[in-house]
Design a protein that fits this description.
With about 425 residues, this protein is an alpha/beta fold. The protein has helices at about 5-15, 50-55, 65-75, 85-100, 115-130, 150-155, 190-200, 230-240, 290-300, 315-330, 335-350, 375-385, 410-425; strands at about 30-35, 35-40, 45-50, 105-110, 140, 175, 205-210, 215, 225, 245, 270-275, 285-290, 355-365, 365-370, 390, 395-400. A hairpin with a 2-residue loop joins strand 13 (about 355-365) and strand 14 (about 365-370). Keywords: Aminotransferase, Biotin biosynthesis, Cytoplasm, Pyridoxal phosphate, S-adenosyl-L-methionine, Transferase.
Protein backbone atom coordinates (compact mmCIF):
# COMPACT_ATOMS: atom_id res chain seq x y z
CA UNK A 1 0.00 0.00 0.00
CA UNK A 2 1.14 3.53 -0.65
CA UNK A 3 1.35 5.86 2.35
CA UNK A 4 -1.72 7.64 1.03
CA UNK A 5 -3.66 4.37 0.82
CA UNK A 6 -2.68 3.51 4.38
CA UNK A 7 -4.13 6.77 5.66
CA UNK A 8 -7.26 6.51 3.50
CA UNK A 9 -8.09 2.95 4.55
CA UNK A 10 -7.22 3.74 8.15
CA UNK A 11 -9.63 6.66 8.13
CA UNK A 12 -12.40 4.47 6.75
CA UNK A 13 -12.03 1.37 8.92
CA UNK A 14 -9.56 1.58 11.81
CA UNK A 15 -10.71 2.68 15.25
CA UNK A 16 -7.82 4.14 17.25
CA UNK A 17 -7.59 4.37 21.06
CA UNK A 18 -9.53 7.13 22.79
CA UNK A 19 -10.77 8.46 19.46
CA UNK A 20 -14.11 8.80 17.70
CA UNK A 21 -15.02 7.01 14.50
CA UNK A 22 -14.23 8.46 12.07
CA UNK A 23 -11.19 10.09 13.63
CA UNK A 24 -10.98 13.88 13.61
CA UNK A 25 -7.22 13.85 12.96
CA UNK A 26 -5.29 11.43 10.76
CA UNK A 27 -2.55 9.41 12.48
CA UNK A 28 1.06 9.46 11.31
CA UNK A 29 1.91 6.24 9.38
CA UNK A 30 5.04 4.46 10.65
CA UNK A 31 7.14 2.36 8.26
CA UNK A 32 9.71 1.01 10.73
CA UNK A 33 11.40 1.59 14.06
CA UNK A 34 14.95 1.05 15.30
CA UNK A 35 16.85 2.23 18.34
CA UNK A 36 14.85 5.14 19.70
CA UNK A 37 13.53 6.33 16.33
CA UNK A 38 10.31 5.86 14.44
CA UNK A 39 10.58 6.23 10.65
CA UNK A 40 7.45 7.52 9.01
CA UNK A 41 6.35 6.40 5.55
CA UNK A 42 7.31 9.81 4.15
CA UNK A 43 10.90 9.29 5.31
CA UNK A 44 10.88 11.54 8.36
CA UNK A 45 12.40 10.17 11.56
CA UNK A 46 11.06 10.93 15.02
CA UNK A 47 12.80 10.38 18.33
CA UNK A 48 10.29 8.40 20.40
CA UNK A 49 9.67 10.22 23.66
CA UNK A 50 6.91 7.80 24.71
CA UNK A 51 8.52 4.33 24.58
CA UNK A 52 5.34 3.29 22.75
CA UNK A 53 3.15 4.01 25.78
CA UNK A 54 5.97 3.36 28.25
CA UNK A 55 6.79 -0.18 27.12
CA UNK A 56 9.82 -0.06 24.78
CA UNK A 57 12.37 0.60 27.51
CA UNK A 58 15.27 -0.89 25.50
CA UNK A 59 14.29 0.82 22.25
CA UNK A 60 13.30 -0.92 19.01
CA UNK A 61 14.93 -3.79 17.11
CA UNK A 62 17.19 -4.60 20.04
CA UNK A 63 19.36 -7.50 18.83
CA UNK A 64 18.93 -9.53 22.02
CA UNK A 65 15.15 -9.21 21.97
CA UNK A 66 14.95 -9.85 18.23
CA UNK A 67 17.03 -13.01 18.66
CA UNK A 68 14.80 -14.25 21.48
CA UNK A 69 11.71 -13.95 19.28
CA UNK A 70 13.35 -15.65 16.30
CA UNK A 71 14.70 -18.49 18.43
CA UNK A 72 11.34 -19.12 20.09
CA UNK A 73 9.52 -18.91 16.74
CA UNK A 74 11.62 -21.84 15.58
CA UNK A 75 10.29 -23.91 18.49
CA UNK A 76 6.62 -22.89 18.86
CA UNK A 77 4.78 -19.61 18.67
CA UNK A 78 1.90 -20.66 20.89
CA UNK A 79 0.42 -23.57 22.80
CA UNK A 80 -2.56 -23.56 25.15
CA UNK A 81 -1.69 -23.16 28.82
CA UNK A 82 -4.54 -25.29 30.16
CA UNK A 83 -3.02 -28.64 31.11
CA UNK A 84 0.29 -27.81 29.40
CA UNK A 85 3.34 -25.79 30.37
CA UNK A 86 6.64 -24.77 28.80
CA UNK A 87 10.05 -23.47 29.76
CA UNK A 88 9.63 -19.80 28.71
CA UNK A 89 6.63 -19.34 31.00
CA UNK A 90 8.21 -21.26 33.89
CA UNK A 91 11.45 -19.30 33.61
CA UNK A 92 9.53 -16.04 33.48
CA UNK A 93 7.50 -16.89 36.58
CA UNK A 94 10.65 -17.78 38.49
CA UNK A 95 12.35 -14.54 37.45
CA UNK A 96 9.38 -12.40 38.42
CA UNK A 97 9.24 -14.03 41.85
CA UNK A 98 12.97 -13.46 42.33
CA UNK A 99 12.84 -9.81 41.23
CA UNK A 100 9.59 -8.68 42.84
CA UNK A 101 9.09 -7.46 46.42
CA UNK A 102 9.36 -10.27 49.01
CA UNK A 103 6.45 -12.59 49.58
CA UNK A 104 5.03 -12.59 46.07
CA UNK A 105 5.36 -16.26 45.18
CA UNK A 106 2.70 -17.07 42.58
CA UNK A 107 2.32 -15.72 39.04
CA UNK A 108 -0.78 -15.58 36.86
CA UNK A 109 0.02 -14.62 33.25
CA UNK A 110 -2.43 -12.70 31.08
CA UNK A 111 -2.62 -10.66 27.90
CA UNK A 112 -2.71 -7.04 29.03
CA UNK A 113 -2.37 -4.74 32.00
CA UNK A 114 -6.08 -4.15 32.30
CA UNK A 115 -6.72 -7.90 32.42
CA UNK A 116 -4.02 -8.31 35.07
CA UNK A 117 -5.97 -5.85 37.21
CA UNK A 118 -9.18 -7.82 36.57
CA UNK A 119 -7.34 -10.92 37.81
CA UNK A 120 -6.08 -9.03 40.88
CA UNK A 121 -9.63 -7.94 41.72
CA UNK A 122 -10.90 -11.49 41.26
CA UNK A 123 -8.13 -12.74 43.56
CA UNK A 124 -9.19 -10.29 46.27
CA UNK A 125 -12.86 -11.17 45.93
CA UNK A 126 -12.23 -14.91 45.99
CA UNK A 127 -9.80 -14.55 48.90
CA UNK A 128 -12.54 -12.95 50.98
CA UNK A 129 -15.07 -15.57 49.93
CA UNK A 130 -12.62 -18.33 50.79
CA UNK A 131 -12.25 -16.76 54.23
CA UNK A 132 -16.01 -16.81 54.69
CA UNK A 133 -16.46 -13.06 54.20
CA UNK A 134 -18.53 -12.68 51.00
CA UNK A 135 -19.84 -9.28 52.12
CA UNK A 136 -16.36 -7.91 51.53
CA UNK A 137 -16.88 -7.15 47.86
CA UNK A 138 -15.88 -3.49 47.41
CA UNK A 139 -12.51 -1.96 46.61
CA UNK A 140 -10.87 1.12 48.07
CA UNK A 141 -8.48 3.45 46.30
CA UNK A 142 -7.62 7.11 46.04
CA UNK A 143 -8.76 9.55 43.40
CA UNK A 144 -6.55 10.45 40.47
CA UNK A 145 -5.83 6.83 39.58
CA UNK A 146 -5.99 4.83 36.38
CA UNK A 147 -6.04 1.02 36.24
CA UNK A 148 -7.28 0.09 32.77
CA UNK A 149 -10.25 0.13 30.44
CA UNK A 150 -12.14 -3.07 31.30
CA UNK A 151 -15.01 -2.82 33.74
CA UNK A 152 -13.65 -3.57 37.21
CA UNK A 153 -10.43 -1.62 36.55
CA UNK A 154 -12.57 1.29 35.31
CA UNK A 155 -14.45 1.24 38.61
CA UNK A 156 -11.27 2.16 40.52
CA UNK A 157 -10.19 4.87 38.08
CA UNK A 158 -10.99 8.42 39.11
CA UNK A 159 -14.81 8.60 38.95
CA UNK A 160 -14.97 12.30 38.08
CA UNK A 161 -11.73 13.58 36.60
CA UNK A 162 -10.80 10.34 34.85
CA UNK A 163 -11.54 9.21 31.32
CA UNK A 164 -14.21 6.73 32.42
CA UNK A 165 -16.72 9.09 34.05
CA UNK A 166 -19.14 8.14 31.25
CA UNK A 167 -19.66 4.78 32.96
CA UNK A 168 -20.09 5.95 36.55
CA UNK A 169 -23.75 4.90 36.70
CA UNK A 170 -23.08 1.30 35.60
CA UNK A 171 -19.78 0.54 37.35
CA UNK A 172 -19.51 -1.02 40.81
CA UNK A 173 -19.44 1.74 43.44
CA UNK A 174 -16.07 1.68 45.16
CA UNK A 175 -14.61 3.57 48.13
CA UNK A 176 -12.52 6.62 47.23
CA UNK A 177 -10.34 8.87 49.35
CA UNK A 178 -8.91 12.17 48.12
CA UNK A 179 -5.96 11.92 45.77
CA UNK A 180 -2.62 11.72 47.59
CA UNK A 181 -0.91 15.09 48.19
CA UNK A 182 1.33 15.94 45.26
CA UNK A 183 5.09 15.70 45.39
CA UNK A 184 7.47 12.77 45.74
CA UNK A 185 9.59 14.78 48.18
CA UNK A 186 6.70 16.71 49.74
CA UNK A 187 6.36 16.51 53.54
CA UNK A 188 3.94 13.88 54.82
CA UNK A 189 0.47 15.32 55.35
CA UNK A 190 -0.73 13.96 58.70
CA UNK A 191 -4.33 14.89 57.91
CA UNK A 192 -4.19 12.80 54.77
CA UNK A 193 -2.66 9.89 56.69
CA UNK A 194 -5.62 10.08 59.04
CA UNK A 195 -8.03 10.17 56.08
CA UNK A 196 -6.51 7.03 54.55
CA UNK A 197 -6.52 5.16 57.84
CA UNK A 198 -10.05 6.21 58.67
CA UNK A 199 -11.45 5.29 55.26
CA UNK A 200 -10.03 1.76 55.34
CA UNK A 201 -11.02 1.27 58.99
CA UNK A 202 -14.61 2.47 58.50
CA UNK A 203 -15.17 0.29 55.44
CA UNK A 204 -13.10 -2.73 56.53
CA UNK A 205 -16.13 -5.01 56.81
CA UNK A 206 -17.01 -4.47 53.13
CA UNK A 207 -13.58 -4.18 51.50
CA UNK A 208 -12.21 -7.03 49.43
CA UNK A 209 -9.01 -5.11 48.74
CA UNK A 210 -7.23 -1.77 48.40
CA UNK A 211 -5.61 -0.95 45.04
CA UNK A 212 -3.30 1.96 44.19
CA UNK A 213 -0.54 2.93 41.79
CA UNK A 214 2.57 3.24 43.96
CA UNK A 215 4.46 6.57 43.83
CA UNK A 216 3.29 7.56 40.33
CA UNK A 217 -0.31 7.90 39.21
CA UNK A 218 -0.04 7.40 35.45
CA UNK A 219 -2.79 8.08 32.94
CA UNK A 220 -4.98 9.56 35.66
CA UNK A 221 -2.78 12.64 35.81
CA UNK A 222 0.95 11.81 35.93
CA UNK A 223 1.11 12.79 39.61
CA UNK A 224 3.86 11.78 42.05
CA UNK A 225 3.33 11.23 45.77
CA UNK A 226 5.38 10.62 48.89
CA UNK A 227 6.07 6.87 49.33
CA UNK A 228 5.11 7.14 53.00
CA UNK A 229 1.44 6.86 52.08
CA UNK A 230 2.12 3.34 50.81
CA UNK A 231 3.50 2.41 54.23
CA UNK A 232 0.33 3.78 55.81
CA UNK A 233 -1.81 1.62 53.52
CA UNK A 234 0.35 -1.42 54.21
CA UNK A 235 -0.11 -1.02 57.96
CA UNK A 236 -3.86 -0.46 57.97
CA UNK A 237 -4.69 -3.16 55.40
CA UNK A 238 -2.64 -5.71 57.31
CA UNK A 239 -4.50 -4.82 60.50
CA UNK A 240 -7.85 -5.68 58.89
CA UNK A 241 -6.71 -8.59 56.67
CA UNK A 242 -7.45 -6.65 53.49
CA UNK A 243 -5.25 -7.50 50.48
CA UNK A 244 -3.16 -4.56 49.28
CA UNK A 245 -2.76 -4.42 45.50
CA UNK A 246 -0.04 -2.39 43.79
CA UNK A 247 -0.62 -1.62 40.13
CA UNK A 248 2.97 -1.46 38.81
CA UNK A 249 1.99 -1.74 35.16
CA UNK A 250 3.39 1.71 34.35
CA UNK A 251 6.03 1.93 37.08
CA UNK A 252 7.55 -1.55 37.02
CA UNK A 253 10.94 -2.46 35.59
CA UNK A 254 12.88 0.66 36.47
CA UNK A 255 10.79 3.59 35.28
CA UNK A 256 10.88 5.47 38.62
CA UNK A 257 14.54 4.75 39.37
CA UNK A 258 13.79 1.57 41.34
CA UNK A 259 13.00 -1.76 39.74
CA UNK A 260 9.53 -1.51 41.26
CA UNK A 261 8.05 1.67 42.71
CA UNK A 262 7.13 -0.21 45.90
CA UNK A 263 10.84 -0.25 46.74
CA UNK A 264 10.73 3.51 47.38
CA UNK A 265 8.47 2.74 50.36
CA UNK A 266 10.20 -0.44 51.46
CA UNK A 267 6.92 -2.35 51.56
CA UNK A 268 5.52 -5.35 49.69
CA UNK A 269 1.91 -5.72 48.54
CA UNK A 270 -0.18 -8.87 48.71
CA UNK A 271 -0.92 -8.66 44.98
CA UNK A 272 1.04 -6.88 42.25
CA UNK A 273 0.23 -6.23 38.60
CA UNK A 274 2.89 -5.77 35.92
CA UNK A 275 2.75 -5.31 32.17
CA UNK A 276 3.85 -2.72 29.59
CA UNK A 277 7.67 -2.96 29.82
CA UNK A 278 7.55 -6.66 30.76
CA UNK A 279 8.42 -7.70 27.19
CA UNK A 280 10.43 -4.59 26.38
CA UNK A 281 7.50 -3.42 24.28
CA UNK A 282 7.63 -6.33 21.84
CA UNK A 283 4.45 -8.30 22.58
CA UNK A 284 1.43 -7.94 24.80
CA UNK A 285 1.93 -9.72 28.12
CA UNK A 286 1.08 -8.99 31.74
CA UNK A 287 1.21 -10.77 35.07
CA UNK A 288 -0.51 -10.72 38.42
CA UNK A 289 1.63 -11.88 41.34
CA UNK A 290 0.29 -12.78 44.78
CA UNK A 291 1.42 -14.14 48.13
CA UNK A 292 0.90 -17.70 49.29
CA UNK A 293 -1.64 -16.40 51.82
CA UNK A 294 -3.80 -15.05 48.99
CA UNK A 295 -3.52 -18.27 46.99
CA UNK A 296 -4.31 -20.41 50.03
CA UNK A 297 -7.26 -18.17 50.92
CA UNK A 298 -8.75 -18.67 47.48
CA UNK A 299 -8.23 -22.42 47.69
CA UNK A 300 -9.72 -22.57 51.19
CA UNK A 301 -13.15 -22.12 49.68
CA UNK A 302 -12.59 -25.11 47.40
CA UNK A 303 -12.56 -22.84 44.38
CA UNK A 304 -10.27 -22.48 41.41
CA UNK A 305 -9.28 -19.04 40.14
CA UNK A 306 -11.76 -18.99 37.28
CA UNK A 307 -9.77 -17.12 34.69
CA UNK A 308 -7.97 -18.41 31.63
CA UNK A 309 -7.05 -16.20 28.65
CA UNK A 310 -6.64 -18.06 25.36
CA UNK A 311 -3.14 -16.69 24.92
CA UNK A 312 -2.15 -17.10 28.56
CA UNK A 313 1.56 -17.80 28.87
CA UNK A 314 2.18 -17.28 25.15
CA UNK A 315 5.67 -18.72 24.50
CA UNK A 316 6.76 -15.93 22.14
CA UNK A 317 5.80 -13.25 24.64
CA UNK A 318 7.36 -15.13 27.55
CA UNK A 319 10.60 -15.68 25.64
CA UNK A 320 11.05 -12.02 24.82
CA UNK A 321 10.05 -11.08 28.39
CA UNK A 322 12.83 -13.34 29.66
CA UNK A 323 15.27 -11.62 27.31
CA UNK A 324 14.11 -8.19 28.47
CA UNK A 325 14.51 -9.14 32.12
CA UNK A 326 17.95 -10.45 31.20
CA UNK A 327 18.91 -7.04 29.85
CA UNK A 328 17.69 -5.43 33.06
CA UNK A 329 19.66 -8.01 35.01
CA UNK A 330 22.86 -6.81 33.34
CA UNK A 331 22.60 -3.91 35.77
CA UNK A 332 23.06 -0.88 33.51
CA UNK A 333 19.50 0.40 33.76
CA UNK A 334 19.88 2.31 37.09
CA UNK A 335 22.63 4.48 35.60
CA UNK A 336 20.64 4.91 32.39
CA UNK A 337 17.50 5.99 34.23
CA UNK A 338 19.52 8.34 36.45
CA UNK A 339 21.05 9.91 33.34
CA UNK A 340 17.63 10.30 31.74
CA UNK A 341 16.32 11.91 34.93
CA UNK A 342 19.20 14.42 34.95
CA UNK A 343 18.65 15.32 31.30
CA UNK A 344 14.90 15.70 31.71
CA UNK A 345 15.32 17.94 34.74
CA UNK A 346 17.86 20.08 32.93
CA UNK A 347 15.74 20.36 29.80
CA UNK A 348 12.30 20.82 31.35
CA UNK A 349 13.01 22.97 34.40
CA UNK A 350 13.43 26.15 32.28
CA UNK A 351 9.75 25.76 31.33
CA UNK A 352 8.68 26.39 34.93
CA UNK A 353 6.98 29.76 35.00
CA UNK A 354 6.50 29.90 31.24
CA UNK A 355 3.11 31.19 30.05
CA UNK A 356 0.44 28.54 30.58
CA UNK A 357 2.69 26.21 32.61
CA UNK A 358 1.27 25.16 35.97
CA UNK A 359 3.95 22.68 37.07
CA UNK A 360 7.09 20.82 35.96
CA UNK A 361 8.01 17.51 37.60
CA UNK A 362 10.52 14.73 36.93
CA UNK A 363 11.05 11.35 38.56
CA UNK A 364 13.28 8.66 37.08
CA UNK A 365 12.63 8.41 33.35
CA UNK A 366 9.39 10.41 33.59
CA UNK A 367 9.14 14.10 32.73
CA UNK A 368 5.89 16.04 33.02
CA UNK A 369 4.83 19.57 32.15
CA UNK A 370 1.34 20.39 33.38
CA UNK A 371 -0.51 23.28 31.77
CA UNK A 372 -3.24 25.48 33.19
CA UNK A 373 -5.47 24.51 30.27
CA UNK A 374 -6.26 21.51 28.09
CA UNK A 375 -3.67 20.74 25.44
CA UNK A 376 -4.52 21.44 21.81
CA UNK A 377 -3.59 17.92 20.73
CA UNK A 378 -3.37 18.55 16.99
CA UNK A 379 -1.26 21.69 17.36
CA UNK A 380 1.02 20.24 20.04
CA UNK A 381 1.60 17.03 18.09
CA UNK A 382 2.34 18.90 14.87
CA UNK A 383 4.83 21.10 16.71
CA UNK A 384 6.75 18.14 18.13
CA UNK A 385 6.75 16.22 14.86
CA UNK A 386 8.15 19.31 13.12
CA UNK A 387 11.08 19.09 15.54
CA UNK A 388 11.62 15.39 14.94
CA UNK A 389 10.04 14.14 18.17
CA UNK A 390 7.07 11.92 18.96
CA UNK A 391 5.01 12.76 22.04
CA UNK A 392 1.41 12.00 22.95
CA UNK A 393 -0.01 14.73 25.23
CA UNK A 394 -3.38 14.30 26.95
CA UNK A 395 -5.70 16.48 28.99
CA UNK A 396 -3.52 19.27 30.45
CA UNK A 397 -0.29 17.26 30.30
CA UNK A 398 2.69 17.24 27.97
CA UNK A 399 4.97 14.49 29.18
CA UNK A 400 7.70 12.11 28.12
CA UNK A 401 8.72 8.60 29.19
CA UNK A 402 11.60 7.83 26.80
CA UNK A 403 13.44 4.53 26.36
CA UNK A 404 16.23 4.18 28.92
CA UNK A 405 18.81 3.90 26.14
CA UNK A 406 18.05 7.36 24.73
CA UNK A 407 21.33 9.30 24.50
CA UNK A 408 21.85 12.85 25.75
CA UNK A 409 21.52 14.43 22.32
CA UNK A 410 18.16 12.79 21.72
CA UNK A 411 17.01 13.59 25.25
CA UNK A 412 17.76 17.24 24.53
CA UNK A 413 15.71 16.96 21.36
CA UNK A 414 12.84 15.44 23.32
CA UNK A 415 12.81 18.28 25.86
CA UNK A 416 12.91 20.76 22.99
CA UNK A 417 9.90 18.96 21.56
CA UNK A 418 8.10 19.32 24.90
CA UNK A 419 8.87 23.04 24.86
CA UNK A 420 7.50 23.30 21.33
CA UNK A 421 4.31 21.52 22.40
CA UNK A 422 3.94 23.89 25.34
CA UNK A 423 4.28 26.89 23.03
CA UNK A 424 1.82 25.44 20.50
CA UNK A 425 -0.68 23.82 22.85
Amino acid sequence: MTPEEVVTVDRAHVWHPYAPMPARVDPYPVASAAGVRLRLTDGRELVDGMSSWWAAIHGYRHPVLDAAVVDQLGRMSHVMFGGLTHEPAVRLARSLVELSPPGLEHVFLSDSGSVSVEVAVKMCLQYQRGRGRPRRHRLATWRGGYHGDTFHPMSVCDPEGGMHHLWTDVLPRQVFTAEPPAGFDAPVDDAYVAELTDAVSRHADELAGVIVEPVVQGAGGMRFHNPHYLRVLREVTRAYDIPLVFDEIATGFGRTGRLFAAEHAGVAPDVMCVGKALTGGYLSLAATLCTSAIAEGIGAGGEVLAHGPTFMGNPLACAVANASLGLLGAGTWPAEVARVQTALRSGLEPLRGAPGVLDVRVLGAIGVVQLDHEVDMAAATAATVARGVWLRPFRDLIYTMPPYVTDDEDLARITEGVAAAVAAG
